[in-house]
Each structure stands twice: as C-alpha cells, then as structure tokens.
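Step 1: inspect the first sequence and its tokens.
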Amino acid sequence: MITGMTGFGAGEVTLGKIKGIVEVKTVNHRYLDVAFYLPVGFSSLEDKIQKIVGGQIKRGRVTVSVKITDRPQTSIVLNQDAVKRYLDFAGELGKKHHIKNDITVADIMRLPGVVEAKEVFVQAGELWPVLEKSLQKAVAGVVTMRRREGKALSVDINDQLKRMLMQIRLIKNRTAALLKEGKTRLSAEEFSSFQKSNDINEETARLAHYIDEAKMLLKQVEGSGKKLDFIAQEMQRETNTIGSKVQDKVVAAAVIAIKSKVEKIREQSNNVE
C-alpha cells in the first residue's frame, strides 16, 4: 500500500532531572529534506538523527525538533577564600583609619569573585541513548500517520482510474459507431482515409496499460510518488492524441473527463512518498 507524506510524531525524553520532548513533522516534498531544530551543543547528533529518519522515511520535508523543558537548576558557588580576604581587608582598613566596619552580607555578595552562578548544560552525548529511543517512537508515529494517509490516497486514485476506464470504453464504442456510420456514407477511398485518421486502438491500449501500471504502484509500500507522476504524464499524452485524432463532440467530452482525472492523479502523486 502506498504511503502519504504528511505526518506527526512525538516522544518524551527523561534522564534524571532532565526532561524534554522530540517532535517529528513531515509534509510533501520531491526529495528527502531534513531540517533540525536542536538545543545548543546538539549539532553533533544531526548525522545520527538523519540516519534514523532516513531509515523509515524516503521522501518528504522532515522537521525534527528537540526541546529541553526541564534541567537541573543553575548552581551557585560561594568563594569562601574570596570572602575571607575581603573581610580581613575590611577589618584591617577599619582599624587603620578608625572606620566603623558595618559591612553586610549583601555588600559581600556584590563584590567581584564572591558568588559565581554556574549554568548546567545538557550534554548531547549523555542524553543520546534516551533521545534515540524517543526519536524512534516519534518517527514510528509519523510513519503510522503517513500510512493512513496512503490508504485514503489509494482509494481516491483508484476511483479516478475506474472512471477513466469507463470513459475509455465510451470512446471506443463511440469510435466504432462513427466508423460504422462512415462506412455507409463514404466511398471506399474516403472511408479508408477516415478509418486511418480515426484509429485510436494504439492509444487506448496504452492508456489501459498505464491504468494497470498505476494500480500496481498503489500496492507498493514506497517510492511510488515519482513513478505515478510519470505515468500520469504519459496518460495525458495518449489522451491528447485521442482528442486530436477523433473530431467528435462525444469523444471530446470523454477526453476532457479523462484529462481532468489524470490531473487529479498528478496532484495526488505529489502527496505520495
């Protein structure tokens, strides 16, 4: 069964006090194009993420987002040696100049080098084993959604193909009727020319063949989108030839109907992996 290209999946990341979320989104695209939105210092994981995504998804624009929602609090370090030096210096200064030593804790904390705030950074390598499992879960969610879309696309494309076959039968019956009518009112030479110019057996046979090929593609799991678009182009070409050969209102209407369905198939092929 064909696969669509629209999907979403997410997975939670938990390692001690570190918590985060991985989100994977996909939309249609001609090729596989992966965009990364990662925390600072996580760019080294791009190749690993690309490998996991590429193992399950062959076509589409993929956005991988990793967000750290919780991490250990910023640690505050008090430099005891610096505090002692400042207090000793203040005491000596007060004695020497007979100045009252009314220094407060707030005064000390404002002095350079007394208090240092150390931000806790999440290390990519440390988080990767947990992140990898969450990423795989998110990608699996995307694949499941894309398969559901593929089923819906398959139903719609199959319906267009069935309607095309009905129009082909109508064209063949109408062409046979035109030949029968021409045989009764045209001379042998005129009818021979008329029959040759209205011969669309080759075109209708090819068109029917392409319909069978399209049905086979709909049963494939991946790589059908580009092939389906190519087949639709060939369908359009054969249909145009039929319209140019047979100058008849009934056939012209059927040709327009087929071209409309081919165009819908081409549009849908852009959503097939």
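Step 2: inspect the second sequence and its tokens, then contrast the two.
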Amino acid sequence: MATVVMHAVVSVDGFIADEHDDPGPLFEWYFNGDRPIVEEVAEDRHAPFRVGARSVDYVRSLWGSIGATVQGRHLFDLTNGWEASPPAGDHLVVVSHRPKPDGWHPEADVPFFDDVAAAVEDARRRAGDRVVALCAGDVGGQALALGLVDEVAMDVVPVVFGRGKRYFGEVDAQHLLDDPGVVIAGDRVLHLRYRVR
C-alpha cells in the first residue's frame, strides 16, 4: 500500500507562503544549482528545476517515488491544477467542496472529492505501492489530524515570514513525530523527513 507523505517547502517559522499566497524566496533553491531534478527525457516539462549537488539525489528520489499527488482547491486554483500534469507522479487528486471548473481539461482523469479521507484513499489506490504526495497546508493538516499521514517531509528555507499560510494548516492538537530519518543540508535548504508516530 502507498505511503502518504505530507510535503512542502517551508520557512523556518513554519509557513508555506505569506498571507497573500506569495512564497517569496521559498522556491529559489529549486533553481540555484546545475543538477536537473528529472532525467533529460522530461526536461521539457520541468526544464527550470535545477538544484545543488547536495540536494539532487534526495529530491530525485522523492519525486521519482511519487505515484499520486493530493492537493486542496486553493492550491489547485493557484496552479490551475498544474494543467492536469503534476510536477511529480502520474495522478492528481483534488480536495474541494466545489466541482471541477467547467471545461477544465475534460480529457484528464483528475477526480475531485469533498472529503479528505476519500481523496487520500483514492490517491493510495492510484499510487499502488508508490508514494502519495499530500500537499501541506489546510488539507495536509486535516489528513494529519485524521491519522492518514505516514511521513512529514519538509524542505526548510532559511527565511522567517512572521505570518502567512501554515505548513500544518489549522491543526490544533499535538502530533508526535519520530526523530528525522532524513537530514540533508543543501544550498539554501534543509531537507527533513519524519515518520509520524
């Protein structure tokens, strides 16, 4: 069965964007190196992503393990659902109380669910024995609260936002994580990965 990994790039103080959805410098490390994240075959789809030597093996491995991605409606609207082609993995599943926009990629098999648990279950089925990448934020926090998250992966960037969109959304209960199984210091990023207890 698929492993559910909640993931995002995050500020040191726990924000994935400011209050206006601007990620500021959070994604700069994706472009500060000379190593492509994906193999040359997919360069046309992900051409700008080039990371440093200390990040490339970890990021390639994570991206290569993803079978399905779950995102919330807010991120769907901001990214236009990545045009039905997520940055990693083969499948996209959306959590939304509103239906798919009229005329949006009618050929795409991108289901919308109004229930987080149902969306994660469908993504697990689609991912098979690969990883379900669960986007951090409100939907990720809801899944964590429901006990649906197996691991938390953070790419921590050395910036303090002060306020904005929280990595864990509005989670209001304590959740214990194991010691980090991954700690990699990259160039302007610290990769951390924890199992959820």
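Step 3: confirm your contrast with the notes below.
Residues 95 and 118 are 9 Å apart (CA to CA). The two ends are 18 Å apart (CA to CA).
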